[in-house]
């Protein structure tokens, strides 16, 4: 696939917005990594290096469509137009967070954006996506669901059950596999017999494709094709995005299991730099605009930190709020 040219359907403004989103994810992750010791979330999973996947895939859907995420969900949240202030406050464990400080880094969600949430259970997103897709199909809404998961989740039984049922019922789900080569510290090749995980789609009679996960245009085009197929009733697609996370599994991970050589080789293929060069070649942006965007992005991130620090801590008396649909008396009285 020749993805060097920008998609014809993208305006200059839309093309620049893609760059802004990827850069926001990068700078957001850089800031929370810097503040890791001050953040209340017990574990923070950086998305650095994988920005093209979230942004490219979400660019292929409508605002009304849904996504489910993983415990590495900051990038998905931002790509789905979530509020950065609310995301940062959530990670800081503050009442002003998107989930009132109760979810933390691994459990961000924004139902107003149809971002149905991340969670710490490996592979738990696809079954949730399945239910939403079934509801959408039964209501004839024409909506699709993107479900993001990693290579480690590709070996979980609930993923395969989800793909089987989605294929059988032709549900409008797009399975987006972010293959960053490591399930925590375990290399994918030591846990899986096949190198290309998209081959598993054949077992369910659905389309499986491999894309360069560091190429936002390629991710967009493949996702758009899958979305169009799903909207027409053609069922699900499995998209394997080959990529690499620049940091450890979490901000507490010493990351000694990967060589510096491997990390540096992947950093040469920075998804943001690849896309920025295309914008420059296409005369969409110039160095002056790039500098302005960078400064504005850094300013927004710093403002989100200030917002978080000013936000109140959750009141312990509200610990049971939003857990039950109807209030109950825990004492049984």
Q: What does the radius of gyration come to?
A: 20 Å
Low-confidence stretches: none
Mind summarizing the main beta sheet?
A: 5 strands, parallel
CATH fold field value: Rossmann fold
Shape: globular
Architecture, CATH level 2? 3-Layer(aba) Sandwich
Helix and strand string, N-terminal first? Answer: HHEHHHEHEEEEHEHHH
Structural class: alpha/beta
CATH top-level class? Alpha Beta
| Proportion of residues in extended strands | 5-15%
Instruction: Give the count of helical stretches.
Output: 10
Terminal CA distance: 65 Å
Strand order of the largest sheet: 1-2-3-7-6
Number of domains: 1
Overall number of strands: 7
């Amino acid at each position: 696939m020749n993805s060097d040219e920008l998609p014809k359907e993208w305006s200059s403004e839309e093309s620049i917005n893609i760059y802004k989103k990827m850069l926001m994810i990068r700078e957001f992750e850089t800031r929370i990594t810097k503040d890791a010791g001050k953040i209340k979330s017990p574990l923070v999973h950086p998305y650095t290096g994988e920005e093209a996947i979230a942004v490219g895939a979400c660019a292929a859907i409508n605002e009304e469509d849904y996504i489910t995420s993983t415990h590495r969900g900051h990038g998905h949240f931002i790509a789905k137009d979530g509020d950065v202030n609310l995301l940062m406050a959530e990670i800081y464990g503050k009442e002003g967070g998107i989930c009132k400080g109760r979810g933390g880094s691994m459990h961000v969600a924004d139902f107003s954006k149809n971002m149905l949430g991340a969670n710490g259970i490996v592979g738990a997103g696809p079954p949730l996506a399945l239910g939403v897709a079934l509801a959408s199909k039964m209501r004839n809404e024409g909506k699709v669901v993107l479900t993001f998961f990693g290579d480690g989740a590709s070996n979980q039984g609930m993923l395969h059950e989800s793909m089987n049922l989605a294929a059988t019922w032709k549900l409008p789900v797009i399975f987006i596999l972010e293959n960053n080569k490591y399930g925590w510290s375990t290399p994918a090749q030591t846990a899986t017999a096949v190198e290309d995980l998209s081959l598993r789609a054949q077992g369910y009679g659905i389309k499986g494709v491999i894309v360069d996960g560091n190429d936002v245009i390629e991710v967009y085009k493949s996702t758009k094709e899958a979305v169009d197929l799903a909207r027409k009733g053609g069922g699900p697609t499995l998209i394997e995005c080959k990529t690499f996370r620049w940091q450890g599994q979490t901000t507490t991970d010493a990351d000694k299991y990967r060589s510096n050589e491997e990390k540096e080789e992947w950093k040469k293929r920075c998804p943001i730099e690849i896309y920025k060069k295309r914008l420059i070649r296409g005369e969409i942006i110039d160095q002056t605009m790039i500098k302005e965007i960078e400064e504005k992005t850094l300013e927004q991130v710093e403002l989100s930190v200030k917002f978080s620090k000013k936000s109140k801590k959750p009141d312990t008396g509200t610990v049971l709020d939003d857990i039950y649909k109807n209030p109950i008396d825990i004492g049984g009285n």
